[in-house]
Amino acid sequence: MAVLVTGGAGYIGSHTCIELLKAGEDIVVIDNFYNSKPKAIEMIKEITGRDFAFYENDCCDRQALDRIFSENFIEEVIHFAGYKAVGESCLNPLMYYNNNINATLALLDTMNKYGCRRFVFSSSATVYGIPKKVPVTEKMPLSSINPYGSTKLMIENMCRELYTSDDRWSIVLLRYFNPIGAHESGKIGEDPNGIPNNLMPLILRAATGKMATLTVFGNDYPTPDGTCIRDYIHVVDLALGHLAAINYARKNTGCPAFNLGTGKGYSVLDIINTFEKVNKVKVPYVIGARRPGDAAECYSNPTLAKKELGWKAERGLEQMCADSWNFIKNN
Ligand code: WQD
């Protein structure tokens, strides 16, 4: 019996594989290395001392999925595989719809064929659009403000309608806020292919000199220091949220959604200042224009996940900054 982890070589996927293996679960991983590297698979095995079946395939490949389910007894699926760059999705929406939606359809069809109906989906706070108020709860209106967010919302709706049609499904939708940080070993971390989009990988590039300066996208927002506020969560806390979701799915049917955040909001300058203080390095930055589509504030109310999943983020911002830097220093 195993948990299939799609995108298991990726940033959140690899950290989740480690926590699953540490908890004694057997896993199977599929990844096409579009936004990850084979080294992550080796590091997962090295960190945990455990082996697992790995398939270098694309989740849109139905034959590959059929082979995985026929060669392994898959009881649950955690689905990370998908394109996730907001900016790229605006430039190439069809690529995002084709990949993210078709991969999920292929996966759900194959799961159904093999009678595997426990599904944990990597959703995102982006399904809240630009929240009208904070902290954000799961009951707040859903909308999409970019093609990446549209794929997340479409998949959530597919899951809700699938459960309505067949109540044997146990689906858990996990809405991530802003994952940062890295495993304490420094052996795995956020290591995207190509040019990063998110704040922390860009802070790391500026701190290491790989990039001359970081641009802070606007300091004229209605926030205490004028920069945008987000809910940054340690990637290991996020990974542990997936274990809690698997255990929930083993005991419940349904299609609930849960915010995976800390419930605390930090500004861009808070992140930069904490990173500099904790790691004793400078992050050269300039204040630039606002980035279209950014909300002034977006942070979670994570109490439902605590109540239903028994999960709560434990790691603070200083550890997130220290672990991020430790990963870069080691690689
Ligand atoms: C955070 C803050 C920027 C880069 C997105 C997706 C979300 C999830 C996380 C996938 C913002 C500011 C950033 C820079 C900056 N992704 N910033 N200079 O936009 O909150 O969320 O990534 O699941 O779905 O929407 O994260 O890291 O891009 O930005 O000032 O060079 O950092 O303006 O305020 P975001 P982010």
Describe the structure.
The chain has 331 residues and is α/β, with parallel strands linked by helices. Helix content is 42%, strand content 17%. The chain has a seven-stranded parallel β-sheet with strand order 3-2-1-4-5-6-11, with helices on both faces. A three-stranded mixed β-sheet has the order 12-9-14. The radius of gyration is 19 Å and the shape is globular. UDP-4-deoxy-4-formamido-beta-L-arabinopyranose binds next to helix 7 and strand 8. The site of UDP-4-deoxy-4-formamido-beta-L-arabinopyranose (WQD) has 19 residues, from helix 7 and strand 8.
In short:
The protein is α/β, with parallel strands linked by helices and 331 residues long. The chain has a domain of 224 residues: NAD(P)-binding Rossmann-like Domain (Rossmann fold), CATH 3.40.50. A seven-stranded parallel β-sheet has the order 3-2-1-4-5-6-11, sandwiched between helices. A three-stranded mixed β-sheet has the order 12-9-14. Strands 7-10 form a two-stranded parallel ribbon.
Order of the strands making up the biggest sheet: 3-2-1-4-5-6-11
Give the overall pLDDT as a whole number: 97
Low-confidence regions: none
Order of helices and strands: EHEHEHEHHEHEEHEEEHEEHEEHH
Q: Identify the overall geometry.
A: globular
What is the highest CATH level, the class of the domain at 2-182 and 233-261 and 302-315?
A: Alpha Beta
Find the CATH topology of the domain at 2-182 and 233-261 and 302-315.
Rossmann fold
CATH homologous superfamily name of the domain at 2-182 and 233-261 and 302-315? Answer: NAD(P)-binding Rossmann-like Domain
Largest sheet: 7 strands, parallel
Name the helicity range.
40-55%
- Compute the number of helices: 11
Ligands (ions, cofactors included): UDP-4-deoxy-4-formamido-beta-L-arabinopyranose
How much of the sequence lies in strands comes to 15-25%
Topology, number of strands:
14
CA-CA gap between termini: 34 Å
Please give the CATH architecture of the domain at 2-182 and 233-261 and 302-315: 3-Layer(aba) Sandwich
Structural class estimated from helices and strands: alpha/beta
